[in-house]
Amino acid sequence: MIAAGVDIGGSYIKAGLVVVRTGRILQRSTTPFPGGKGPEAVFDVVEEQVRHLLGEQGMTASDLRSIGIAVPGSLDADRSRVVHAYNLDFHDVAVRESVEQRFPGVPVVALNDADAATLAEHRYGVLKGTRTSVLLTLGTGVGGGLILGGKLFAGGMGRGVELGHMTLRYDGRHHDCGNRGCVEMYCNADALKAGAPGRPVEEVIEGIRAGDPDMEPALERYTDALAGALTSIVNLLDPEVIALGGGVSHAGMPLVEALSVKVQKRSFSHAAPRIELAALGNDAGLVGAAIAHNNL
């Protein structure tokens, strides 16, 4: 069976046709996000992408099992409306209805992008087979998803989890969400770059991966903050695996090794879970959106 997955980001919209059984992407496309034009313009782009991909494969919408839409924000309890997606300027947006109108008869599901990535990693990647695990996505923002009891945990009230908005410093810097000291302020890509003033973040990430000693202060500062957030997660959930995704995770094993040492030292049990690099990379949100229909 084939499903369409769409990962809407603040810079680009990624869409793909996915073989649900294996997670293989048959074909994909990436289009710039039409910033400033409103939600309906975004859904027009989504429709164009999906229909183009279907045409390239000699298929029509009737061949789709479902369409999944991943967004970087919070949704209501039945996942029909985006409550807030600040990076998209989406507020109280009827995402499911808008996409269903463009694809009559095709089931549509919407979900948080980090939850989508967590689903994909649990089905096909490094979280496969776990009953308690965590995915943390580290990029422009910080997000995450939880696997509890072998299933995606969408929150006790159905509003999802926001790992990037846990409080890391009660008197910390203000965030656009209205709170202060959020994990995202200290563990996103800009926070890593701040440890190496004047260097582009891509250069910092590559330098850490390559073992450049000039990047050690940036790695040390960044992992001090991120280890604090991970230690709280470990003390609360005792997960089997913590997976790291997003652009910062491209720093590779030096990042993993530094975090493993610090989390083990700081956690109450002094026994850190396995910390792994996510397997699906930038495709995780797209693939997770595609398989979401029967996995939520």
Note down, in words, how this protein is organized:
The protein has two domains: 2-112 and 283-294, 2-Layer Sandwich (Nucleotidyltransferase, domain 5); 126-278, Nucleotidyltransferase, domain 5 (2-Layer Sandwich), CATH 3.30.420. The chain is globular and about 55 Å long. Helix 1 (39-56) crosses helix 2 (95-102). It has a five-stranded mixed sheet. The chain has helices at residues 39-56, 95-102, 113-124, 183-187, 189-193, 201-210, 216-237, 253-266, 284-291; strands at residues 2-8, 12-19, 25-32, 64-71, 74-75, 82-85, 90-93, 108-112, 132-138, 142-148, 151-153, 241-245, 274-277. The protein is built from nine helices and 13 strands.
Which descriptors apply to this entry?
Nucleotidyltransferase, domain 5; 24% strand; alpha/beta; 296 residues; 9 helices; 13 strands
Helix content: 25-40%
Principal-axes geometry comes out as: globular
Count of the separate structural domains: 2
What is the CATH topology of the largest domain? Nucleotidyltransferase, domain 5
Radius of gyration: 19 Å
Q: What is the tally of beta strands?
A: 13
Spatial sequence of strands, sheet with the most strands: 3-2-1-4-8
Secondary structure elements and their pairing?
Elements: E1 2-8, E2 12-19, E3 25-32, H1 39-56, E4 64-71, E5 74-75, E6 82-85, E7 90-93, H2 95-102, E8 108-112, H3 113-124, E9 132-138, E10 142-148, E11 151-153, H4 183-187, H5 189-193, H6 201-210, H7 216-237, E12 241-245, H8 253-266, E13 274-277, H9 284-291
Parallel strand pairs: 1-4, 4-8, 9-12, 12-13
Antiparallel strand pairs: 1-2, 2-3, 5-6, 6-7, 9-10, 10-11
